[in-house]
Predict the structure of Outer membrane beta-barrel protein.
Amino acid sequence: MSLFFANAEEKPVTAPADTLAKDTVKTKSEPFAFGDFTWLNGNDRRHKALLDTKYFTGRFLFDMNYTASNHNPVDHTVVGSTALARDHEFEISTIAFGGDFHYDNIRASLLTQFGTRSTVVPRNDLSVTRGQFDLSTAYRYLSEANAGYHFNALHGINVDAGLFMSYVGLFSYYNAENWAYQPSFTSDNTPWFFNGIRVQIFVSDKLKIEPWLINGWQSYGMFNSRPGIGGQILWRPVEWFQGLTNNYYGADTQDKPGRKRFHSDNSIEVRYYNNPKGKFITRAAFSMTGDIGNESGAGVNGFSSDPIKGPAQYFASGMVYHRLWLDGGHIGWTVGGGFINNPGRYLVLYPTGDANPIPAVNTGAVGTHPFSANPGDSFKGYDYSTTLDFMPNDYLTFRIELVHRHVNVPYFAGHGGVTSPDGYNTTPVGDFEPDLVKSETRFIGALLVRF
């Protein structure tokens, strides 16, 4: 494999090295090369990389969307999503280019990140307010930047350091690899990237064990004095099944080193029907994901409230998706949804604009009506969606989606938006208050290209 199984499984399993590249180092049977795993939710669906050479496997992704909320906010701002940013506008979410370098046993990956995601995702990292040199600006245009070494032991061992994709929440960071465009809360509210060191140990061609030593939970920097630890176990015993677990432990609250975070993310995917020559239904599969975690110490008490130790602060969520492939695999239809319960709101994607509770990097300023994120604050929600894909080939997807989301507190952008009376930043706020509502229904259309 040209990457020595290089990025094997980016959130959770997106990697040219899994199935796409050619051998340069002779090892035992290659991990996961015994089957076709392009059906997986969150995995590269290409059967071949167009830009593969002896020393470099190029990658290019383009993601453009148009979304329309039933509330039609005057400031054209989407609240509560990392996949979407602008409402009732054509939006370039992602332009990414780069690739994977491989020479002898040396390996490196570089993928840029331009578009609205270079703003939407870094804003959720509060570690950048510590110290100087503006890490959110330094890193925002990189989605992957790591290098390492491949050891010819077992079925391959990779040691990499740098920025790499998270696997938590099943969905891939790159929408071309997903069954739906707007992820359920379980995926959208969990990490997309890590900054640190990973060791990918391919025990067999069906099992990977991967420990991490990282700065923190989707953080460019470190909140306290110790790094976070975690890892993934990925198992594919047969072509039609995948099971995985991701687990994390760290301290990710400013000035509270005694507050510890634990999170466990667990998924299975099953392809229960496969008929490549079928005239109508070609394949059918489903995915199930369940997450559980909490924060305890320094004023909060995990899964139960205590009059002395503090209120409960935990995360419980789940999501289920079902997908059919029709017309020889050129049409995909997905239905699914999920739920979230996150008292303390420590993993909520906070509203922006005048409702923004996130301190500005240099000034520490927040919105004049910040969304509350105090210990004990309730946040319960659910979502469901249906998605239709037209895929003329492995590299192009036309997607339309209808998604409904609801939470038990005002959260999504209503017609008045979250910016100002007329929606413009140049207009004085005056006595304006953000118009937050409990639910939204939105249409999404997207053009997705991946080479």
Summary: The chain is about 5% helix and 45% strand. Confidence is low (pLDDT under 50) at residues 1-27.
